[in-house]
Amino acid sequence: MKLAIIGMGVMGRNLALNFRDAGHQCVTWDPWPQARTWTAEGIEVCDTLEALVNSLPVPSIVLLMVKSGRPVFELTEKLTGLLEKGDVIIDGGNSNYLDTETNVITCREHGINFAGLGVSGGAEGARSGPSMMLGCAAEMRIMLEPLLANVAARHDGKPCLGWFGEGGAGHFVKMVHNGIEYAIMQAIAESWQLLELSGQTTFAAGKQLGIWSGGPLAGYLMEISGDVLQAGDALTGTLLIDLVDDAAGQKGTGGWCISEAVNLGVPVPSIMAAVTMRQVSSHEVLRVLPGDRPEADTGISTEAVHDALMCAVALALAQGAHLLTVASQEYDWKIQLAEAARVWRQGSILRMAMLDKFADPAALFDAASEHSNGLRQSVAAASTAAVPVPVMSASLAYLDSCAADQLPTALVQLQRDRFGAHGLKHRETGETFHGPWHEGET
């Protein structure tokens, strides 16, 4: 099959090579002239967008691998004037699912099909086999799945490619995937600082993470975290972690995940805490307080840090599973937790042993509860030493809230009724009533 790829950055180039090696013809184009100087055996680089489209068979398939937002909208608009009815545009970038829904409607008016494709695995995955999350009209699956399956990662002999419903469903699943990823990355980073509180050097902490990556915490993020903590600078011999600015970047998917969770009324405190930490790290105006970390013998053990990380990872997955479930019901999608876990098994940045429990949130909560003492000890030790561990702290508050017989929100309801007459619900009868401050009011 012949297809076009627009966007010759590292992801686009590697996917083109992947499609080529899978036996497909691939033509490419990029709006930037300097990007079009790239060459690879068996891959044609076109000079113009028109030449790209004219080189394709009917029906044509065009895969966009460009920055989300305006670039996708602009290219979609141009392509609708060049493609024919029945042709397909696939957005393989990290687009907001709402943008995908808009582009579906725009293309439908021209008789063109638009699909949203979440792609996980970074440059390495794009070249050797990514995890793919597809959202498109059901009838388009017949055309797209065989093509994409050829280049997807494989687990137990099956491609890590899943269809999750129409419109923006695929990009929504990728968005939640990234939100979970934010939380787990931050939790691992917090475990590094906790290990230092236990008396380990940074290099030793990296080795410890590497050891843990061979057990229940096994996964890609654990493996690379252990590696990079032990990596040194070739010029100075200093550990890279000591040379790197700690202002963390982000591309938007974490914030979108939080926004959608708020809209759907789903609590995702671990993801919120991870995004907030990246924001704080990048705002110099917030980082002006004088450092005054107390000298404290925390007594935290390596085992407690391990259990804290287990708990935080399990709860990040549970929160993501909750959001996917509610969204699928709200938007009438076809998101199945077991299918999401299967697709993430290989190629995905989230590939990890704990995905075994993803389809059963109760099992994730059981795992978190089993390791909660370590989380409690770790959060207490970090607080004593003035070391911020926002994801672990949020995870503990979330777990305790889910298990509490009485939450302080009962007082919040009284406050709301007192100043806004919002009403109260009787705990035993379920009846709605007001407090005495509203007696006699009509």
A few lines on this structure:
The chain has 442 residues and is α/β, with parallel strands linked by helices.
Q: Key features?
A:
442 residues, alpha/beta, 17 helices, 12 strands
Care to describe what's here?
The chain has an eight-stranded mixed β-sheet with strand order 3-2-1-4-5-6-7-10, sandwiched between helices. A two-stranded antiparallel ribbon has the order 8-9. The radius of gyration is 25 Å and the shape is globular. It contains 17 helices and twelve strands. It has 442 residues and is of the alpha/beta class. Helix content is 50%, strand content 10%. Helix 8 runs antiparallel to helix 9.
Q: Helicity, in percent?
A: 40-55%
SS content category: alpha/beta
Per DSSP, what share of the residues sits in E-state strands of 2 or more residues? Answer: 5-15%
Which term fits the overall shape? globular
Poorly predicted runs are: none
Task: Compute the number of helices.
Answer: 17
Major sheet summary line:
8 strands, mixed
Number of strands: 12
Taking all Cα atoms into account, the compactness measure Rg is 25 Å
The H-and-E topology, N to C, reads as EHEEHEHEHEHEHEEEHHHHHHHHHHHEE
| Average residue-wise pLDDT | 95
Termini separation (Å)?
Answer: 71 Å
Order of neighbouring strands in the sheet with most strands:
3-2-1-4-5-6-7-10
